[in-house]
Task: inverse folding
């Protein structure tokens, strides 16, 4: 019997643009206890029923919505398994002027086993942070919903 082959994605899934000038800087967000990312499409269109009973549609655009969540994410990068952004970094970004406006993200689809980033311009439409555990380091449940501009 042939051995099963397992393909694992490479690199971090999500990067957030934290600096735009003089050049773009994308910061990696931790994979620590991250749930699968949910990518859905919102189709912007107008449908009208004509007088003869036929349906006419006017397609405008397809926009993506990204839902990402983490459970028991440590507050700081020092305690995440990969050393990338923790819960406090995400909360600080969300509360900053950059997080309140439009910003860019990069998603790594890891096509053909290598890092393959696709860039999207998004707004944060929902952000929830729940303190799950206190101690030497706080652990948070974080969920974010981002809508493509």
Result:
């Amino acid at each position: 019997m042939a051995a099963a082959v397992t393909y694992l994605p490479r690199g971090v899934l999500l990067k957030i643009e934290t600096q735009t000038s003089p050049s773009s800087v994308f910061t990696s967000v931790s994979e620590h206890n991250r749930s699968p990312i949910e990518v859905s499409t919102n189709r912007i269109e107008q449908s009208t029923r004509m007088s003869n009973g036929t349906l006419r549609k006017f397609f405008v655009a397809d926009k993506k919505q990204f839902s990402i969540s983490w459970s028991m994410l440590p507050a700081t990068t020092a305690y995440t398994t990969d050393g990338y952004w923790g819960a406090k970094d995400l909360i600080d970004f969300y509360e900053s002027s950059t997080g309140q406006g439009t910003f860019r993200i990069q998603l790594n689809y890891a096509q053909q086993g290598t890092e393959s980033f696709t860039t999207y311009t998004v707004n944060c439409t929902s952000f929830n942070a729940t303190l799950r555990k206190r101690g030497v380091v706080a652990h948070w449940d974080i969920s974010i919903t981002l809508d493509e501009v």
